[in-house]
Write a structure and sequence with these properties.
Elements: H1 12-33, E1 41-46, E2 57-61, E3 67-72, H2 83-87, H3 97-108, E4 116-121, H4 142-147, H5 151-164, H6 168-176, E5 178-181, H7 186-200, H8 206-222, E6 227-228, H9 229-239, E7 248-253, E8 266-269, H10 290-308, E9 313-319, H11 322-331, E10 339-344, E11 347-349, E12 361-363, E13 376-381, H12 387-396, E14 403-408, H13 420-440, E15 446-451, H14 454-462, E16 470-475, E17 481-487
Parallel strand pairs: 3-4, 4-5, 7-8, 7-9, 9-10, 13-14, 13-15, 15-16
Antiparallel strand pairs: 1-2, 1-6, 2-3, 10-11, 12-14, 16-17
Helix pairs in contact: 1-7, 1-8, 11-14
């Protein structure tokens, strides 16, 4: 490993300040969760007394186990998270991170059943670590550590049993109750806070984030009191952070097997249905018929579940590709009684509340060139120019389907969308183009190919009506495209 010069390394105080910032972000997020009924969070305490080495943030729930969070932050990526790191003694020969967690759990179990422990660290898991890389989608190791019979797992189990002075069953129970949340930088927690802020009807801008962190810092300075929803509401009133009617969170995971969405009222987990071994190459369904036989019915179930909760404003989050973002936008249109939005980098992608006119777009060929009564393909080139890939795919089908490529007048690329109003204006113009195609060309099917920001796909889906029956497509990278959801119209 390359040695970093001492003068270039972050100072101990830098690491301490980074840890404080992450800790305060975790605590503010937990505080906002007290305002969202379905999270079941009753109170939050920062640096709680009499809970041992897991006192950074204590989350008490109405029902179910309480959560005890400890933050281990680093301002440098010099070291990754490994089993060695978790078992490492302190410089003064004190107990390791795991030993401190194990002792804390032993103490807590005297007064409560199955307390949940969480280690939050800014470190990333070392991809070469044979144990931590086995963490499941709930950030836990217990079940896989119990089931695995690989030499590495058996060696690690023996090492951990000796390190913690426990039995096999005690080890598995401990790891079943321990979450390892890695890559937990302040930036990551900004997105978490933005989502829960919208769910709580609280402002989610940069100023609001800083005021929330400062509020937690004052808690630390003054006392270790328990903060309930009443206390959080008082703080929000005092800080002027009220926003609008809250959103209800819908989470859909189809790429990354690991993220958990505790703030979601409804979660759909489709990861195991897709081909691929990790998020970047997970493309296309193992059984392509399931777009319509499984995934669409589950979206309809989610719609009914959210309607039963009287949720009108829905915030969509998770890991998915563009056909799913778009189709979720269609399913939760205003005509179905919803307003759907997405958060990215703190920005809320949602339909504007004021009037927005269609924006200027360019179309690759006039509609008069298209034969009436035949299918048409529409490629939306905002983030990238997908025209050559779509041409190649259409040729591979053996069907003569004419292609229109549409893009903003500002061009294609990362800066082609100026702001939210511009994004919505472009979406309106593309929707109007699809309506004109329906009137003049009357295609049986409009084949839709997307290369857009995810938020734009949500916006476009939300206004996709009075258009031809639409076939969406999953981008398979070098393998072309796969028909995904069909949108009847």
């Amino acid at each position: 490993m390359m040695q970093v010069p001492a003068a270039a390394r972050p100072s101990a105080s830098g690491a301490r300040l980074t840890g404080d910032d992450v800790q305060h972000a975790v605590a503010w997020h937990a505080g906002l969760r007290t305002l969202v009924p379905h999270t079941g969070v009753r109170s939050v305490t920062v640096e709680a007394a009499q809970v041992g080495n897991v006192d950074d943030v204590v989350i008490i729930r109405d029902t179910g186990p309480n959560e005890y969070v400890q933050v281990k932050a680093s301002v440098s990526a010099e070291r990754a998270a490994t089993l060695d790191w978790l078992c490492e003694q302190t410089r003064k020969g004190g107990p390791s991170i795991l030993q401190r967690f194990y002792q804390a759990r032993t103490d807590l179990c005297r007064n409560e059943t199955r307390p949940q422990l969480t280690l939050v660290t800014t470190r990333s898991i070392d991809p070469a670590d044979p144990i931590l890389t086995q963490r499941d989608r709930h950030d836990r190791l217990g079940e896989r550590l119990r089931q695995s019979r690989t030499p590495a797992a058996l060696t690690a189990r023996a090492r951990l049993i000796e390190h913690l002075s426990c039995t096999d069953d005690e080890l598995f129970e401990f790891f079943a109750d321990l979450r390892l949340r890695t890559d937990a930088s302040e930036a990551v927690w900004r997105d978490h806070i933005a989502e829960i802020s919208y769910a709580a009807g609280v402002r989610a801008d940069e100023t609001a984030f800083r005021l929330g962190i400062a509020e937690v810092r004052e808690w630390v300075k003054t006392n270790r009191a328990v903060r309930t929803a009443h206390d959080i509401r008082e703080a929000i009133d005092r800080l002027g952070l009220h926003a609008t009617e809250p959103f209800t969170v819908l989470a859909i995971n189809s790429l990354d097997p690991r993220p958990a969405h505790p703030d979601a009222a409804v979660t759909l987990d489709w990861v195991d249905r897709f081909r691929g071994t990790e998020a970047r190459n997970r493309r296309g369904l193992k059984d392509p018929q399931e777009w319509e036989t499984v995934l669409r019915p589950q979206l309809a179930d989610a719609q009914r579940a959210l309607r039963s909760l009287r949720a009108r404003r829905v915030l969509i989050t998770g890991t998915m590709r563009l056909p799913t973002w778009f189709t979720t936008g269609v399913m939760f249109q205003e005509t179905a009684g919803f307003t759907l939005a997405k958060v990215k980098d703190g920005q809320l992608w949602a339909p504007p509340t004021s009037h927005v006119a269609p924006a200027a777009i360019s179309v690759s060929r006039p509609l008069s060139d298209l034969p009436v009564g035949q299918d048409v393909a529409l490629a939306i080139a905002i983030a990238a120019d997908l025209t050559p890939d779509v041409h190649q795919y259409l040729a591979s089908t053996g069907r003569d389907i004419p292609l229109l490529t549409v893009r903003p007048a500002t061009g294609t690329g990362g800066t082609s969308i100026v702001d939210l109003d511009h994004a919505f204006g472009v979406a309106l113009a593309i929707r109007d183009l699809a309506r004109e195609i329906a009137r003049t060309i009357k295609p049986p099917v409009l084949h839709l190919f997307l290369a857009t920001p995810a938020g734009f796909a949500v916006l476009l889906g939300g206004i996709w009506d009075r258009v031809p029956t639409t076939q969406t497509y999953e981008d398979l990278a070098a393998d072309g495209y796969e028909p995904a959801f069909t949108i009847p119209n």
